[in-house]
Amino acid sequence: MTIESVTESGIGGALRLPRAREVPLSAPPLSYTAAIERYLTGAGIAKSSARIYRISLTTWGWMLAGEPAPIGPARRGAKPPVFPLAAIDDPTLPEALAELAAARADEMDADTVNRELSIARKAIGWWQRQGWIAWDPTIGIERRPAPPDRTKALAENQIAALWRLDVGLREKTFWKLLYESAARADEVLCLNVEDLYPQDKRGKITAKGGATEWIHWQSGTAQLLPRLIARRTRGPLFLTDRKAPAGTPTLDVCPETGRARLSYRRAEEIFEENTRLLANPLASPEDIEDLDGWTLHRLRHSALTHDAEDGTSTPMLLARSRHASVRSLERYARPGVDAVARHIAERDPAARRRNQ
Q1: Residues 6 or more apart from 200 whose CB is under 8 A from it?
Q2: Is the dihedral of CA 229, 232, 237, 239 positive or negative?
Q3: Do strands 2-4 and 196-197 pair parallel, antiparallel, or not at all (unpaired)?
Q4: Is 330 helix (H, G, I), strand (E, B) or coil?
Q5: What angle is formed at CA 96 by the lines to CA 92 and CA 99, rounded to 5 degrees?
Q6: Which of 25, 190, 294, 335 is the S-S candidate for 275 at Cβ 3.0 to 4.6 Å?
């Protein structure tokens, strides 16, 4: 390993400090896309997280190539640019990247922007440690402030309205399973038929960090699962409507139907599209294309919040959420809109007089 002195200016005129030039531990990948796959495998990213990492890193691929990342419907099916990983070391990239990232941040919510930035930095750091690139072009890009959203937990009438939507069996089962299990969407999408124990209303998932854990569901999911599975005995639980395209990993293809595992991105799109009018009850159906629906994470958030409102103990909430610390439960322990409404109604002087 040799030391290289660097005197050129970085963002804002600050001098880059001398850094050690790494001797590559292995032959560098030829393309950025290949580098993503090497990172996901080499860094030990859990299967349940790999999809989100791949989507985020693909999004950053456009910006690292000097192009705006597509958003909304334009993102689906868009082919990312092909460029060598070494292009990340281009000294002109940080300035252009900062502008592209700022423009994207203006179009997206802060949580998404911050998550994508964090994933990009983890991957870049890993590539640096392999000696494949020298610099982190994201230095100088700041995380966006994300004010807390006090309305993330859906009200009980909103959950009831969700179950009344006229959607397919796959969506009904997926949404019901997310709410009843309080599991993360990416974990549930990684479920295979052979991971299920229907008689016990439970299933094995690969959680954050790669641990194998149990999730549990209730009668609503139990009634739907047999119809969804039909006679299948193995393969992904939630499938796309079409045959898997060539090149789809074997683990993501149902060996009995040839269809692919449903992706997080597509599942999120379907949920968001179907909940636009529920999320905007005063809007006109004619305006549906301009509305925003709910995110899948709100089902997990709502389930845990409703548990807390019903007096579920802290140890049980920790087990349900599979969080490691009690502090992580604070976001769910805040009473939701229904609990506050009941509290106010019970203390309404007029209501008290009627009950006397």
Answers
A1: none
A2: negative
A3: unpaired
A4: helix
A5: 155
A6: 294
What's the average model confidence in pLDDT over 3-14? 42
Strand 212-216, strand 2-4: pairing:
unpaired
Q: Which of 261, 78, 284, 302 is nearest to 178 (CA)?
A: 302
Give the C-alpha distances (Å, rounded to integers) separating 73 from 68, 70, 107, 257, 267.
15, 8, 14, 28, 14
CA distance 308 to 336: 9
Q: What whole-number distance in Å separates Cα of residue 215 and Cα of residue 322?
A: 9
Rounded to 5°, angle at Cα 53 from 52 and 57:
120
CA distance 74 to 101: 18
- Count of beta carbons in the 10 Å neighbourhood of residue 144: 17
Q: What is the pLDDT of residue 71?
A: 77
- 239-243 vs 202-206, strand pairing mode: unpaired
DSSP type of residue 24: P
Strand (E) or helix (H) holding 216: strand 212-216
Q: What's the rounded Cα separation, in Å, for the pair 111 and 72?
A: 16
At 88-135, the pLDDT tens digits run 999 999 999 999 999 888 888 787 888 899 999 999 999 999 999 999
Q: Say how many C-beta atoms besides its own lie within 10 A of residue 57's C-beta.
A: 24
Using an 8 Å Cβ cutoff, are 64 and 35 in contact? no
